[in-house]
């Protein structure tokens, strides 16, 4: 066994050691926006934060990626894919928009679910614009009304964003708009399809029109404040979500505990945590086929992301009941105040 394989942040490290590791960026968001470098800008520069909120699966992450022009947040058909507030910076001449993708707001079934809700709701008053994302293909339900009620209480500008218009007819879209408008007095409504890039640029222009005068929060060229280790953990988790079914996706947490970039190659080690031995067996698969598939798919994505050859090594470990354990949720980086 190599040193890397023996490394387990949950079992071998004290809390202090783990904190020191995390401070270096292992698995967690790195930059505090408050301390982000603010470049001097000519007067009239406008900037601000835009939160995408809505039910799980509404298409928030896909829309943010489309606005950014590259994959920064993972997406999947599995509800509650997003567990971290991911930020993506979009620059336009005279403007800087910082998108904040939030976890889908839902009725929580465990500690993790409650934490995800807290994380999403905490953004509502911390941003300049709140975008209520509403899936055009699903009828407006009680869950949507609940989210709408929270949006209504936000002091930010409010925009209704209908998503997945490519899969809905006009009557469905109109019904969604009418239902949402019954709940909230939106300042604007826009119908989009991230998949077909329909109204994506128009959406960005619309958001820019709401931005207050402000500094450049992130230097040009910095697209996200997410660390390499967080990107790795998220991309690996996405492949688990895409290749597994039923309870597995919700039981999985991933941490990247080794990341080394040289001129020629990126070497990575990540651990996939599940809650039960049976789940570990499913992730590994018959003769290791499943873990191999997850690893290959994640590696291909990471090679694109880092524009480099990547060596990715994965381990699978069991951490029973982590979703109801606040300390573990925090260690994965899924806590609301991360
Ligand atoms: N047809 C179509 N599908 C879309 C579009 N946008 C998103 N989807 C699909 O909808 C599903 C959910 O998308 P996500 O972007 O992960 O949704 P989310 O709101 O971030 O979900 P959570 O992480 O659960 O909060 C995925 O299967 C996407 O491919 C779109 O414009 N058109």
TrEMBL record:
Residues that coordinate or bind GTP: 54-61, 101-105, 163-166
Localization, UniProt: Cytoplasm; Cell membrane
Coiled-coil regions listed: none
GO biological process, one term: ribosomal small subunit assembly
Annotated region (G3), positions in chain: 101-104
Region listing for G1, in residue ranges: 54-61
SUPFAM superfamilies xref list: P-loop containing nucleoside triphosphate hydrolases (SSF52540), Prokaryotic type KH domain (KH-domain type II) (SSF54814)
Keywords, comma-separated and alphabetical: Cell membrane, Cytoplasm, GTP-binding, Membrane, Nucleotide-binding, Ribosome biogenesis, RNA-binding, rRNA-binding
GO cellular component: cytosol; plasma membrane
GO MF: GTP binding; GTPase activity; ribosomal small subunit binding; small ribosomal subunit rRNA binding
Function description: An essential GTPase that binds both GDP and GTP, with rapid nucleotide exchange. Plays a role in 16S rRNA processing and 30S ribosomal subunit biogenesis and possibly also in cell cycle regulation and energy metabolism.
Protein known as: GTPase Era
Organism: Collinsella acetigenes
Protein encoded by which gene: era
């Amino acid at each position: 066994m190599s040193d890397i394989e023996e490394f387990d942040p949950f079992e071998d490290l004290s809390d202090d050691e783990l904190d020191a590791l995390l401070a270096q960026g292992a698995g967690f968001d790195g930059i505090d926006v408050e301390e982000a470098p603010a470049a001097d800008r000519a007067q009239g520069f406008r900037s601000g934060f835009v939160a995408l909120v809505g039910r799980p699966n509404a298409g928030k992450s896909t829309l943010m990626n489309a606005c950014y022009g590259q994959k920064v947040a993972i997406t999947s058909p599995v509800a509650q894919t997003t567990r971290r507030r991911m930020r993506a910076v979009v620059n336009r001449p005279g403007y800087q928009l910082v998108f904040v993708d939030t976890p889908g707001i839902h009725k929580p079934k465990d500690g993790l679910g409650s934490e995800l809700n807290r994380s999403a709701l905490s953004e509502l008053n911390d941003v300049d614009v709140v975008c209520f994302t509403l899936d055009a293909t699903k009828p407006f339900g009680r869950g949507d009304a609940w989210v709408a009620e929270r949006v209504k209480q936000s002091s930010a500008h409010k925009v209704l964003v209908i998503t997945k218009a490519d899969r809905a007819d006009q009557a469905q879209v109109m019904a969604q708009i009418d239902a949402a408008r019954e709940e909230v007095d939106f300042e604007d409504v826009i119908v989009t399809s991230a998949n077909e890039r329909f109204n994506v640029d128009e959406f960005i222009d619309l958001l820019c029109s709401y931005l207050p005068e402000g500094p450049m929060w992130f230097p040009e060229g910095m697209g996200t404040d997410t660390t390499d280790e967080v990107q790795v953990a998220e991309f690996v988790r996405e492949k688990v979500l895409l290749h597994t079914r039923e309870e597995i996706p919700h039981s999985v947490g991933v941490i990247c505990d080794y990341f080394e970039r040289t001129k020629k190659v990126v070497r990575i080690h990540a651990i996939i945590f599940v809650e039960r031995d049976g789940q570990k067996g499913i992730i590994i698969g018959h003769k290791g086929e499943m873990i191999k598939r997850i690893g290959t798919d994640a590696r291909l994505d990471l090679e694109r992301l880092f524009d480099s050859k990547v060596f990715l090594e994965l381990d699978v470990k069991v951490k029973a009941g982590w979703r109801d354990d606040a300390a573990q949720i925090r260690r994965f980086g899924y806590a609301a105040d991360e």
